[in-house]
Automatic annotation (TrEMBL):
Record-linked Gene3D superfamilies: Aldolase class I
InterPro entries: Aldolase_TIM (IPR013785), OxRdtase_FMN_N (IPR001155), YqjM-like (IPR044152)
Pfam families hit by this protein: Oxidored_FMN
Sample GO molecular function, one term: FMN binding
SUPFAM superfamilies: FMN-linked oxidoreductases (SSF51395)
Protein name: OYE32
Organism ancestry: Eukaryota, Fungi, Dikarya, Ascomycota, Saccharomycotina
Named cofactor requirement(s): FMN
Entry keywords, A to Z: Flavoprotein, FMN, NADP, Oxidoreductase
Length: 436
């Protein structure tokens, strides 16, 4: 057997300390604007400028939107699929990657193959994804959710809006909601049980416990509370799905109570000064119902979220009314991505008091997205399907905008930085660390 010679640290790039296997320590996060003569000393485009979210800074304004993969095992735990799936995108430098909807309660998954985080073992399996993100100097968040009346469904690649029964791992008898209203009358999803007060309190605690696991066991950098798309939190604040007559129903203040108590519970279980909290909402219902949640309701809610210390509002729409139209709510003078008018309207309302992210169809035109961010119409572009098609979307955007970004060392060879620039960058990084 040949014994390798002793290698001094100066002879190789050191391995990242966050993982047990060798992957080179990245001197700077991929996706960071590369300041050199190739960028002609021009400032970074707005989309590639850093952004401070609470005490966390992301290197650009392009995020991976949470997208269910329906690939967890029957314990609702992450598998190697998730490491490969998220790792491919993390390697290319999105500013923030948000892990898909992850259930906080046993009756909360959208399907039998959704991720869960109501046990320590589930959180531990997610840690491998987080550790890999950190080994690449990337920021990663998780979306915490409860499916409410839309739980126990089939993965959409099997059937859209199809109940998943016990024979294939479903739990139709345990599905709950604010009111016993079926999502679609005579549809395939089950009619839910109306939540008792004790169970409401239990689920609020489960959100808090899940947040604590996500931070203390998994190590996520930020948390997103899923309050959109017709899931439990959305079901509570919408008058379409909430017909309660107690303190959780009726008035606007009562209907948003559940979400606000979830935020309070999470804030009591983690250090919210270190871990920024996001909330995703359906800014409008896209519904023909005159009582449907409106953009003005979202503005009122945004004010309450600011008071609760939420750092970023993730703007989507719809999902809570089977009658929803493709486009509704605000009039549009020009055709643009579906949620931009809602994000713009909310951002105009909250100003600098709350960061606003927009989602939906933003992968098509980086020049337009950069213009939205430059004008302050929203702060972060969250992209889903674009990253599924192209995990290197951030790099593609940079090419289209004519600028260069730092790349993961393994992927950047033959492009930039060149070898000497990498060596110089590593030395500067090490010297800066020593000076601290």
């Amino acid at each position: 057997m040949t014994v390798p010679k002793e290698i001094s640290p100066s002879d190789e790039i050191k391995g990242a300390s966050e993982v047990s296997y060798y992957t080179p320590a990245q001197p700077v996060a991929a996706g960071t604007f590369f300041e050199n003569e190739k960028n002609l000393d021009a400032p970074a485009p707005a989309i590639f400028s850093p952004l401070k979210i609470g005490n966390m800074t992301i290197q650009n304004r392009i995020g991976v939107s949470p997208m269910c993969q329906y690939s967890a095992d029957y314990q609702y735990e992450a598998t190697p699929y998730h490491l490969i799936h998220y790792g491919a995108m993390l390697n290319h430098g999105p500013g923030i990657t948000i892990v898909e909807s992850t259930a906080v309660s046993p009756e909360g998954p959208l399907s039998p193959h959704d991720l869960g985080i109501w046990t320590d073992e589930q959180a531990q399996k997610l840690k491998q994804v987080v550790d890999y993100a950190h080994s690449q100097k990337q920021k990663i968040a998780i979306q915490l959710n409860h499916g409410g009346r839309k739980a126990s469904g089939q993965p959409p690649f099997l059937h859209l809006e199809q109940l998943c029964d016990e024979t294939v791992g479903g739990f139709p008898d345990k599905v709950v909601a604010p009111s016993a209203l079926q999502f679609r009358p005579h549809g395939n999803l089950v009619k839910p049980h109306e939540l008792e007060l004790d169970d409401i309190k239990r689920i609020i605690r489960q959100f808090g416990d899940a947040a604590k696991r996500a931070v203390e066991i998994s190590g996520f950098d930020a948390l997103e509370i899923h309050g959109a798309h017709g899931y439990l939190i959305n079901e509570f604040y919408s008058p379409i799905s909430n017909k309660r007559t107690d303190e959780y129903g009726g008035s606007f203040e009562n209907r948003v109570r559940f979400l606000l108590q979830v935020i309070d519970e999470i804030s009591s279980k983690i250090d919210a000064t270190k871990i920024p909290l996001f909330v995703r909402i359906s800014a409008v219902e896209n519904s023909p119902d005159p009582e449907a949640w409106s953009i003005n309701d979202s503005k009122r809610l945004a004010d309450l979220l600011i008071a609760k210390g939420i750092k970023l509002l993730d703007v989507s729409s719809g999902g809570n009314d089977y009658r929803q139209a493709a486009r509704s709510g605000l009039s549009q003078e020009k055709k643009e991505p579906i949620h931009v008018p809602f994000a713009r309207e909310i951002k105009k309302h909250v100003g600098d008091k709350l960061l606003v992210a927009c989602v939906g169809g933003l992968e098509k035109d980086p020049f337009l997205v950069n213009e939205y961010i430059e004008k302050g119409e929203f702060d972060v572009a969250l992209i889903g399907r674009g990253f599924l098609r192209n995990p290197g979307l951030v790099w593609t955007f940079a090419d289209q905008l004519g600028v260069r970004l730092h790349q993961n060392l393994q992927l950047g060879w033959g492009f930039w930085p060149n070898k000497q620039q990498i060596i110089d960058l590593i030395k500067r990084t090490e010297n800066a660390s020593l000076e601290k």
